[in-house]
Specification:
The chain is mainly α and about 280 residues long. The chain is about 65% helix and about 0% strand.
Length: about 280
């Protein structure tokens, strides 16, 4: 188990390096890895919906891959051919964001009725990216796609964002620490300067650990994978591994928003129980 943990961290660091280059143009300093590790890296990238940025990072560093196995090139080409990047406007639409705690649900509903449309489109998109990332964290651990989309929005549209208004909405949602965590991950993992993260009130010291826990947790949580099922004798059972993942995730994010973390866990339990045939 310890050996697998070390292996996953090595692979995750290589993935972050390539994504930083492919998405943000950061210099890449790559390590030679076995085909097994590269397969693992591609699995992580696919699970986090960032195969396109991985492909760009590899294209930017073709000379680094001359001594790697040909199977790796074919693997990447095959996966990229099958990969469809998420549609940005659909991923960050108001309808795609769901909170479970009544306080956050009510606050988001009120903001989405009028306030978020009474500003620049860049400010609205930034807010929706931040909120969607919070929902992703609570459902399955953060998704690298969401963090990279946030970073790109900051780099490309940050000058047009009304951060005073944005911070007031974050305050109304009472999710400042979750927002701090996103900024802290961009700083600790992707090398963003704190000046580029004006919505971040303070850095979260656990950001690096949380990030790598989520990056290496491939086959991330899906509620359908741990639905309770009823056997003929009337007993209930579920996927205990996925259930424990949900418990660990709740524990990881509990300090950032206790109410929303617990409500998300209970909502997942209720949803899975509802799948039991009468």
């Amino acid at each position: 188990m310890k050996r697998n943990g070390i292996l996953n961290k090595i692979v995750a660091r290589q993935l972050v390096c390539l994504l930083g280059n492919g998405a943000f143009g950061h210099p890449a300093h790559l390590q030679v890895m076995s085909l097994f590790k590269w397969n693992r890296l591609v699995d992580m990238a696919e699970d986090h919906e960032v195969l396109d940025f991985l492909g760009q990072g590899m294209n930017n560093n073709l000379s680094e891959f001359l001594h790697f196995p040909n199977q790796l090139v074919e693997l990447i080409r095959s996966r990229l051919h099958q990969f469809t990047p998420p549609v940005f406007n659909e991923r960050y639409s108001v309808e795609a964001i769901h909170f479970n705690a009544s306080r956050h649900k009510l606050a988001f509903t009120e903001l989405s009725k009028k306030d978020i449309y009474d500003t620049t489109s860049e400010t609205r998109r930034m807010f929706l990216i931040l909120m969607r990332n919070v929902c992703d964290m609570l459902l399955s651990g953060f998704c690298l796609r969401g963090l990279i989309d946030l970073g790109l929005a900051l780099r490309n549209e940050g000058n047009h964002v009304d951060f005073v208004k944005l911070e007031s909405w974050i305050g109304l949602m009472d999710l400042q620490r979750f927002v701090n965590l996103q900024g802290s991950i961009l700083h600790a993992v992707f090398g963003f300067d704190t000046n580029e993260l004006p919505f971040m009130a303070e850095q979260e010291p656990d950001a690096h650990r949380v990030a790598f826990c989520c990056i290496t947790d491939i086959n991330r949580y899906s509620s359908s994978e741990w639905n309770f099922r009823q056997v003929s004798g009337g007993f209930l059972f579920n996927n205990s591994r996925q259930w424990l993942r949900g418990i660990r995730r709740t524990n990881m994010y509990f300090s950032y928003s206790p109410r929303e973390s617990m409500r998300s866990l209970f909502h997942s339990m209720a949803s899975s129980l509802s799948e039991i045939e009468e």
